[in-house]
Amino acid sequence: MFGKVSPEKLRDKLRGAEKENGCIPFWSWNDRLDRNELEKQAEWFGDSGAAGFFLHARGGLRTEYLSEEWMKCVETCAQKAEQLGIGAWIYDENGWPSGFAGGKVLEKEENRDCFLTSARGAFDPEAEASYVTDGNRLVRVRGGSSGVECLNVYVHVSPSTADILNPRVVDEFIGLTHEAYEKRLGEKFGLIRGFFTDEPQYYRWGVPYSRTMEDFFMREYGEDVADGLGLLFEDADGYAQFRYRYYLAMQSLMLNSFAKKIYFWCDKRGLEFTGHYVEESSLAGQMMCCAGVMPFYKYQHIPGIDWLARSLGNELPLRQIASAAAQYGKQKLLSETFGCCGWDVTPGELRRIGEFQFVGGINVMCQHLIPYSEHGQRKRDYPAHYSPINPWVRESGAFREFNDYFSRLGKLISDSDEVVNTAVLHPIRSAYLNYKRWVNPFEGGNIDETENGLRETMRVLRENGVNYHFVDETLLEEDGEVKNGLLRCGQCEY
Fold first, then answer.
1. What's the CA angle centered on 448, arms 445 and 449, to 5 degrees?
2. How much is the pLDDT for 1?
3. Least CB-packed of 1, 52, 111, 371 within 10 Å?
4. What strands, in cross-sheet order, belong to the sheet with 137-141?
5. DSSP string across 342-377
6. What pLDDT is attached to residue 143?
């Protein structure tokens, strides 16, 4: 993988690794902030071998989010990072999923997510759409007669999540967050390296919906989306085609309204957009949140994943991100890792967790997390914590040694080319056809056969030593071609 490298060249390659591929932990701001204390803690990051920190609003925060005092704290840490030769990055929310600007976006009900439910009964004029059964067909009706059972579909409004499929809502989010930092920091905004987005998603806790779907369906398909909403709940004639169009529309709207907007906003200003989407470790999880994660990596300067707890063995999130990164020339791949590992996790276990991901292509580590304060319930926040409260971290030089190891390993990986000539068509669009969000998605969402087939394919390839990339159909449509007997997607040929 690395070829033959002399010891001298290897040492040259590793010089500066701490900055180029250094660890960038979450710095959890979870109390009333004091700027002198922030400067002291920032110095500890520098001494610990970190390449920077993500300024991360977190539960327990007592300094008002996005207030003038908050902005002064950000400015102080950005200046201190510059003095230390490390990077200050901004986490774009006060919590997650990204998009609600600490609650400000949600003050307008029209900015909130929508979701659908269904019930059979008499025609209900309050329903979004109603259908009668005609053989194996669902026929939409706009009036009811006594004694006729209908499938009624209802639209509900989320109290707590923003509709990031709506470009107007995302513009408002950017204005309240990204542009607020730019305006307040002025020339010092140039000290910021980029923004971290955390778990953006369409509504995950029920059948997702957005009012933007109405215009999309009419524009793209010449159809009223309400004519088919019942097919998300029952397998009547035409259900597979409708669900395919529906989830393709959901993904397209989220890509264009959220991912591209923020990516190009950052790119225009010389900032890097990173972070991770959510539930990328299974097809059912991706259907629940984004209808396929791979296209979103195209619109991140540093694509990222989330790796919770101590589990090893699931290669899907690693193969997905490494494939898209190779196809689009992304040199750095980030993992938010070690969340939920527990206070009893050992440094040896953490090393194994990190190495498993780095072998799969990750080359920048974001440790979850290093808190500003530990008192009260803060110490229970998805531990363990990698601050001096942790005995092995407190030991002189131990955390620095840990960070340097992964920084240098990341540098070697990012400077290496993975040789791959086999492509596997990613099956996410097959999942569109039969997915039922109203079935418990953690039990498969009715797509077990597709999910199991994917796992078996990966197993067979792995056990036979076949290195492969996933090719996503959305990306293949945008950047794919067949030429001279080879399939090309982006910069890769198979």
1. 140
2. 33
3. 1
4. 137-141, 129-134, 150-162, 112-121, 207-209
5. -TT--HHHHHHHHHHHHHTT--EEEES-EES--TGG
6. 83
Nearest alpha carbon to residue 89 among 232, 302, 234: 302
Q: How do 26-29 and 52-57 pair as beta strands? A: parallel
- The distance in angstroms from the start CA to the end CA of the chain is 18
* pLDDT tens, residue by residue, 222-243: 999 999 999 999 999 999 999 9
Buried b (16+ CB within 10 A) or exposed e, 417-439: eeebeebbebbbbbbbbbbbbee
CB 54 within 8 A of CB 22: no
Q: Find the mean pLDDT for residues 469-479.
A: 98
Note whether 281 and 314 are within 8 A (CB): yes
Q: Are 56 and 29 contacting, i.e. CB atoms less than 8 angstroms apart?
A: yes
Torsion of CA 249, 251, 256, 262, to 10 degrees: 160
Own/partner long-range contacts of 103-108 (Cβ < 8 Å, ≥24 apart): 104/66, 104/176, 105/162, 105/169, 105/172, 105/173, 105/176, 106/159, 106/160, 106/161, 106/162
- Closest to 340 in 3D by CA, of 368, 313, 372, 371: 368
Q: In one letter, which amino acid is 281?
A: S
Query: What is the C-alpha to C-alpha distance for residues 423 and 425, in angstroms, rounded to an integer?
Result: 6
User: Where is 458: in which H helix or E strand?
Assistant: helix 448-463
Give the CA count within 13 Å in the CB-facing half-sphere of 100.
24
pLDDT tens digits for range 365-403: 999 999 999 999 999 999 999 999 999 999 989 999 999
pLDDT band for position 144 (cuts 50, 70, 90): confident
Judge whether 360 and 328 are in contact, CB under 8 Å.
no
pLDDT tens column, 243-260: 999 999 999 999 999 999
Check: CB of residue 332 under 8 Å from CB of residue 428: no
User: Which residues neighbour 414 within 8 Å (Cβ) at sequence distance 6 or greater?
Assistant: 20, 21, 331, 332, 363
